[in-house]
Amino acid sequence: MATTKLKTDRPTYTSDFIPSDVERAVFLGNPVLDNMMSSLIALGAEVWSNRRRMKVLESLLAEKGITEEMVESYMPTSEQEAEWQKDRDRFIDLTYSPLLREGDLPVSADFGDRKKR
Prior knowledge:
This protein is mostly helical. It has 3 helices and 2 strands; from the N terminus they run E-H-H-H-E. The chain is extended and about 60 Å long.
């Protein structure tokens, strides 16, 4: 695998990030619909990335002689279980936290109207 060395002394032309109020904006005319769409999109992205990863893992396991029965009968350690619960909580937050947004700012609002309330 080829490696490239990045120059760290070259000038950059970046500017400060201007935060948006996408958390409060209403795009579909109803904040509940916006929250549902955000949640649905996040869930779809998570499901597909996990399915793709599973396909890779299943192919590699089959090549190495790991059977489906071995996978189904596996029992995680308590440390693994605790780590998996943390990952589950992250997943739930990512996919369902958009449902908690209030969405009180129309998408057509002027930038000056976008102050935190």
